[in-house]
Design the sequence.
């Protein structure tokens, strides 16, 4: 399958059993994929099959099941690495973006940063890409610096580059904003940072599920992502890091699996990426994530991106026709995330009444308090779409929204 035109999207939607259910007696319209993605049958089946037929711990047992489990887990690592165009031995498997960013914070930043250093962030970061750096800043005395946005919700790139002064040792930036949908030009940003000797961390949570991502082409030092937004199980994700960093970084957590030899007078650590994978991992989860990657590759990430762009254009056009509705984020490069508010209506009321119509949207601050402060709103509603949504659902969502607005007026 290549172009969107040749893909039967209704058939693809039918792969997602949960999307067949009803809520409050209405067909479910799931517009909360930026929060977590739904899972196709093949992912659910892969987890089920693992527990039914192969369940054992990894890298510990010589018995048949142990080697099957290890092969399945390492196979998932190889699939993810190929999907993201990186080396498998540079891909640390972990519970998700939050863990991945904390790993960089504690293993890379904490031992290196000094009071005279600065960490550069952007206004649009998720709390997972703010709070770990704040904690490191408190421990090291380093300062946090924030790059601001343009009114359309895109990064003010000249201001960002001007903020890259010699004190800045680390830049942490989202690939795609979970509130505004803005797609940041991370390859160019990383090129600018690299030219100034700044280490780069990209939060890819909202990018990897929605577009082809080639980490090697981005040229960052670290790239974090989450599996549960990628049609995979919860508690899965990864951190890609340059080998030189993985070699130099001390382990974050100690325990089994991450060692070669333990004596009371000292421990020899395992090679990366295992050095950073203490304890029993979410084996079945990664088997499921491997199946998710196969599934998404079968459709093609470029086709998924084009499909979601069409859904975004449709929904945005209809939303713009509603009086008193404001959309936050209109950057030229935008993923299918639409944050909006309606004058005089609380987002929680809106989301609660939409839920009664079968429509699942998120309301609140979306783990991005500094961004919401900048937007000047307490909360927003967020409709986030995925390739398994339909144009008919967009129409039904708009009809439900108009009905709810009439009720609240
Ligand atoms: N960064 C962004 C941009 C996100 O959208 C999210 C999830 N909402 C995270 C980080 C955190 O991901 P997780 O909760 O899977 O660790």
Sequence:
């Amino acid at each position: 399958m290549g172009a969107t035109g040749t893909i039967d999207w209704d058939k693809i939607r039918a792969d997602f059993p949960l999307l067949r259910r009803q809520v409050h007696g209405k067909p479910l319209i799931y517009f909360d994929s930026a929060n977590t993605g739904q899972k196709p049958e093949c992912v659910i089946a892969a987890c089920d099959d693992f527990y039914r037929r192969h369940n054992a711990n990894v890298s510990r047992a010589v018995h048949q099941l142990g080697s099957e489990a290890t092969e399945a887990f390492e196979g998932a690592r190889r699939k993810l690495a190929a999907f993201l165009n990186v080396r498998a031995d540079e891909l640390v498997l972990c519970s998700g973006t939050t863990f991945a960013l904390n790993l960089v914070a504690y293993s890379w930043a904490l031992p290196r940063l000094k009071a005279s250093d600065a960490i550069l962030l952007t206004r649009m970061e998720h709390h997972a890409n703010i709070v770990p750096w704040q904690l490191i800043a408190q421990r090291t005395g380093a300062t946090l610096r924030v790059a601001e946005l343009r009114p359309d919700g895109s990064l003010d790139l000249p201001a960002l580059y001007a903020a890259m002064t010699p004190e800045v040792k680390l830049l942490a930036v989202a690939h795609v904003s979970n509130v505004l949908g803005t797609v940041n030009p991370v390859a160019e940003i990383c090129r600018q940072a690299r030219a100034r000797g700044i280490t780069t961390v990209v939060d890819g949570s909202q990018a990897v599920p929605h577009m082809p991502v080639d980490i090697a082409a981005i040229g960052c030092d670290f790239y974090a992502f989450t599996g549960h937004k990628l049609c995979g199980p919860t508690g899965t994700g990864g951190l890609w890091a340059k080998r030189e960093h993985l070699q130099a970084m001390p382990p974050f957590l100690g325990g089994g699996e991450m060692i070669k030899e333990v004596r009371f007078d000292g421990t020899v650590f395992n090679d990366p990426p295992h050095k950073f994978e203490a304890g029993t991992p979410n084996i079945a989860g990664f088997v499921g994530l491997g199946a998710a990657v196969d599934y998404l590759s079968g459709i093609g990430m470029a086709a998924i991106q084009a499909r979601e762009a069409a859904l975004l254009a449709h929904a945005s056009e209809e939303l713009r026709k509603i009086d008193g509705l404001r959309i936050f984020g209109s950057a030229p490069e935008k993923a299918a995330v639409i944050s909006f508010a309606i004058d005089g209506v609380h987002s929680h009321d809106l989301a609660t009444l939409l839920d009664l119509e079968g429509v699942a949207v998120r309301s609140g601050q979306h783990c991005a308090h500094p961004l919401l402060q900048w937007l000047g709103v307490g909360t927003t509603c967020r409709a986030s779409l995925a390739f398994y949504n339909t144009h008919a659902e967009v129409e039904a969502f708009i009809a439900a929204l108009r009905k709810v607005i009439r009720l609240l007026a």
